[in-house]
Amino acid sequence: MLQDALREMIRAYRQQKKEILIPLIRSKRTPQAAICCLVLASAILAATCERHNSPIAYNPNVTYYWSQFQIQEKARPLAAVFPWPVLEKNPALIAAKTFTIGVYDVLQSISSEDSWARMGKMTAEELKAFVRDRANELAEQILLLDEANRIKLVPSGGLVGTPDYARGLMRYRSMTAAEAVTQKISDYWAKIRPDFPVSWEEMKEIHDKRVYARVRYIVQDARPGKTQEENAAIRRRIEEVRARAVAGEDFAELARKYSSFRPETGGLELEYGRVSLGPTVDKVVFGFPVGAISEIFERAGTIGFLKVEERFGDQRSIDEQVEDLKGIVQNIKFADFQRAHVEELKKKSRVRTKDPWKD
């Protein structure tokens, strides 16, 4: 009751009507102490309302997963880079003819709790780079959806006919809707993908560059869902096991005892290709000498190290893998086509990147 009354007083006072607050202050029946308390309470409530209830303009081009209050709470660990007064203004990271994407929009689009946990561990520069990259991803998604809608793309797959799919650019609130957008973009790429010719020389170039490695891993789970103490204990254990491996203990036996990755085979990964586990592991696999013990690395919720036992080229002939090599060349060409197409869309829409920390 008191809170409702105070809200009404603030509303009336802000509208310059003053029907409630001023008569109470002027009344001879109102004690001075009560007047002071009333004014103080009004100021506190006004600040509270301003912080939690003043709506931030909604961006219809971005999937919002959280309430404003939830974003405030989630952003507390990031306050050094994103204090609430900055987020509340939603400073632009991307500006185009038909849309803008701000810092607040980017944080609203991050649905994964794992991503929020990783953000909390980033340095200021890493966090800024992460947010800029995410803003660029959102801009590309908007442009591609716009094009899909422009050519009146007919959806495919299990989501055909769903309202979320058909609307395209909308305020998505469920992962199903977000997946529908992803599928629509995939359908768009499939529709405009050219048929890339592939020469024998191009297949041979890929064949000759292919490198494989026999690798043994010792890794353990260290996911954001674990406590800091649990992850710290896991890292200490991995450091101890690595020290034993460097000292000369049998790597395969250590992997059987301590690795969550293929312990039954001593952590062995046969014919590791350059893109098997992503750039983090590729750099380790192909950047260390054969027989050396790598440094400890983290990837996809795991922490560990590895040993490269040998590297070798592709043992199969080109004739034995024509379709495979042809597909690789076509995918490389398609990736180049996608980048060029997105850049052209950005140029047409006059997409510009902005730095809210400088602008």
Describe the overall structure.
The structure is a single chain. The chain is built from 15 helices and seven strands. The chain is α+β, with helices and mostly antiparallel strands and 359 residues long. It has three domains: 2-52, no CATH class; 57-203 and 319-359, no CATH class; 211-313, Chitinase A, domain 3, CATH 3.10.50. It is flat and about 60 Å long.
Task: Summarize the entry for a quick read.
The protein has 359 residues and is α+β, with helices and mostly antiparallel strands. The protein contains 15 helices and seven strands. The chain is 53% helix and 11% strand.
Q: How are the elements arranged and paired?
A:
Blueprint: H1 2-14, H2 21-26, H3 32-52, H4 68-74, H5 84-89, E1 92-95, E2 100-102, H6 103-108, H7 113-120, H8 124-150, H9 163-167, H10 175-192, H11 200-209, E3 211-221, H12 228-246, H13 251-258, E4 268-272, H14 279-287, E5 297-299, E6 302-313, H15 322-348, E7 352-353
Antiparallel strand pairs: 1-2, 1-7, 3-4, 3-6, 5-6
What key attributes describe this structure?
flat, 3-stranded antiparallel beta sheet, 359 residues, Chitinase A, domain 3, 3 domains, disordered N terminus, 7 strands, alpha+beta
Structural class: alpha+beta
**What would you call the shape?**
flat
Q: What would the average pLDDT be, to the nearest integer?
A: 78
Summarize the biggest pleated sheet: 4 strands, antiparallel
Q: Distance between the terminal alpha carbons, to the nearest Å? A: 45 Å
